[in-house]
Amino acid sequence: MVNLLWQEGKQDAAIQLEDYWNELARLYPFSLFCSYMLDVHHDHTYAGPIEEIGRTHSDMIGTAEDERFRVALDSASRDVFGVPLSQMVGFSRHNHEGERRFPSGQRTMLWVKRNLPSASAAVLERARRYYEDSLQ
Question: Which of 48, 84, 50, 83 is nearest to 69 (CA)?
């Protein structure tokens, strides 16, 4: 349900539903597995309140694709900024609360979008190329 709301552009409603689930879980213990379809290779993904997904979840499970994205993003940020950013961002004390739960690549992109917004599209474009090359 939350993914449907998110995909329809109703991000605030999706987050509100997540908050309702969390309130219910405080009263009645249960496990809930959410799933969001996010294209981490596109700038528009980082334009919305994506940090709220991290804030409303206890855990986020990374995949092999997340690690490939981190490697591609490090290569792209090295091209654009001269340094791979994932390690620097991982140690940053300025990460937002929900951001910390994201896999390293997405956390790095959130940082770039917030701190270097004019460069985020270029970094993602390069990262997408590196990612696609790694699949061949």
Answer: 84
pTM: 0.79
* Contact assessment for residue 111 and residue 92, using Cβ atoms and an 8 Å cutoff: yes
- Which pair of structure tokens corresponds to residue 41? 């290779």
Residues 102-135 pLDDT 10s: 888 888 898 888 888 999 999 999 999 999 999 9
DSSP-based three-state secondary structure for 63: coil
DSSP state at residue 94: T
CB atoms within 10 A of CB 49: 13
- Which residue is it, tokens 């449907």? 4
Q: 110 exposed, middle or buried (CB, 10 Å; 0-12, 13-18, 19+)?
A: buried
CA 97 to chain CA centroid, nearest Å = 13
- Residue 81 is encoded by which pair of tokens? 């900024």
pLDDT in tens, 43-63: 888 877 888 888 898 888 888
* Of the candidates 40, 58, 55, the residue with the CA atom closest to the CA atom of residue 106: 40
Give the integer Cα–Cα distance in Å for 110 and 125: 15
